[in-house]
User: What shape does this take?
Amino acid sequence: MKKMRNKHRLIHHYIDLITVLTQKDLKVRYKNSFLGYLWSIAHPLAFALVFFIAFKVVVKIRVENYTLFLISGLFPWQWFANSVNGAPMIFINNASIIKKVNFPKNVLVLTHVLQDMIHFLLAIPVIALFLIIYGKAPSVSWCYGIPILLFIQFFITYGLSIIVASTNLFFRDLERLTMLFTTLLFYFTPIIYPEHMIPNHYKPLIHLNPMASLMVSWRNLFMVGVLDIFEICLALVYAIIIFFLGHVIYKSLSWRFAEIL
Assistant: This one.
C-alpha cells in the first residue's frame, strides 16, 4: 500500500513538473510579443503563400483547393520541425538547472514538444476556417482522428527530439545537421505535392520516410475526413521504434549530462 502511495505521489509530482515547465516555456515564448498567438499561424501561412505562388501560379500544379491542401500539411509539419530543430539546445540552455537540481532531464524535452503541440492545436481552427471558405466543413471523424494522429506524432517528435538533444551534448555539429535533415525531409515528404505525383518506381521508397504516412493522414483527415488504416499503422510502427530508440539513447547518455555541461 505504501509503495502504491509513493508511486502515486511520484506520478503527481511528475505531472506538476511538466505543467509548470510547459507554462513557463509558453510565457517566455510570448514575453514582449505583441502578436502572440498569431505567430503560431503566420509562419505556415507565409510558406503556404510562397508555395501557392510557386506551384499553383507559376508551375500550375493540378491540385484542387491547393491552399487548403498546403496548410493541411504545413501546420502539423511546423509542430514537428519546430520541436526537432529546437531540440539540440534544450539541455545546453538548461545547463544550470541540470547541474543543480536532481530531476528527470527528459521532462525538458517533453515540455518542449508539448508546447509546440499546443500551438498546433490552437492553429486547427484556422484550418477549419479555410475549409468553410472552400465550401467544406470539419468532419465528425476529427473527434477521434485528431487524438489518434496527435498521439502518433507526439511519440515520433519526442523520440527524435530526445535523440537530438542527448547526442548534441557530445557532437555539437548536430545542431546544423538537424536543420539540414528537417529541410531535406520536408521536400521528401508529400506536403507541397500529392503522393500520386511521385513516379511509380519511387513510390515504395516513400514508406521509408517516417513522416510521410503521418502527413498524408493529417491532410486526408482535414480535407476529406478519412483515415487510411495502412498509413496509420505504418506511422504507429515508426512512432514506437523512434520512441524506443530515443529512450535507449537518452538512458545510455543521461548519466554524463552534468559532467559534459
About this structure: The mean pLDDT is 85.
